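Sample pair:
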Amino acid sequence: MIDVLVAGGGPAGLATAIHAALAGMEAVVVEPRTGPVDKACGEGLMPTGAAALRSIGVVMEGRPFRGIRYLDGRHRVQAAFRDGPGLGVRRTSLHAALSRRAEELGVRIVPGHVGSVRQDADAVHATVHGTGHAAVHAAVHAAADAAVREAGNGRGSTEVRARWLVAADGLHSPLRALLGLELPASRPRRYGLRRHYRMAPWTDFVEVHWAPGGEAYVTPVGDDLIGVAVLSSQRRSYPEHLAEFPDLLSLLEGPPATRVRGAGPLRQRVRSRVAGRVLLVGDAAGYVDALTGEGLSLALLSAEALVGCLRAGRPAAYEDAWRRLSLRHRLLTAALLEARHHPRSARMIVPAAQRLPALFRAAVRALA
């Protein structure tokens, strides 16, 4: 029987499989997409996230950044990290580096997706639908011969038996919905769009530009590449969003290097991150907003906590562990979103931070 079956081969799923392998567990990742997967992402790792990568032997190139800067017209405030830099890194590069490390540790990455799930006292029985049924069957068999049998219903599917199933299948997790763990979404809904520009970064800070309709994030991800992500509750095109940031727009001299990618709605409320022998990690575990830029770092730290709970034989403890890890992020992000929803208070966010730089530094360092 497989120890840990991971549904989803993004950063959260691969990090979970890596931690499981390092703990001596047998891990199989099921992912329908091949090759490094790109998606709308701010692509900034806080110092804790960069350290979490190093701790599992993932070494990769990127562009270090020293801290966070908020800008709103003539107002600006910045804070440097206290314990080393963060890391700006292309999502595809991060995915490729995690995949290499997982494969070095013997993790099997299987093409397909997890469909139906049932549990008993000792195991999870998951039906894996593969893009290539023979490849799925052979790969999982190679990981654990006794774990797999042909599903009795449906062609092109394989039933996998595992001690634990980890749902790392993204913001709109099908497994989360299947298990009835979703809660109604709150409004207003927010969405993100991201594109890259081929040019040298003008700063070694991540910049957050504020406007009445949303925020624009500038992350240096290479010596000649920056990512610009916009977040807003307004549904409109990427150029229309950028027009709200004339100061930023005047700096974007390089040509677009990638197409626009989108994600949303961002807010995802979850009843629980543990349902018997199924555990949720990454965006599937719930999401507030990208406003404070902690998504990737929180996913990496949560993966470590999840496997630690499994090793200790206390899977239910993961719920409290996740809440502790995400508490500062959830509280600060919720407070900023609440202010953002009121035009008068939204206009005061950056001016207030500028007048209270010590408080801004404390918030940045707490998140970092």
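The chain has two domains: 2-42+94-185+267-337, 62-90+186-266+342-367.
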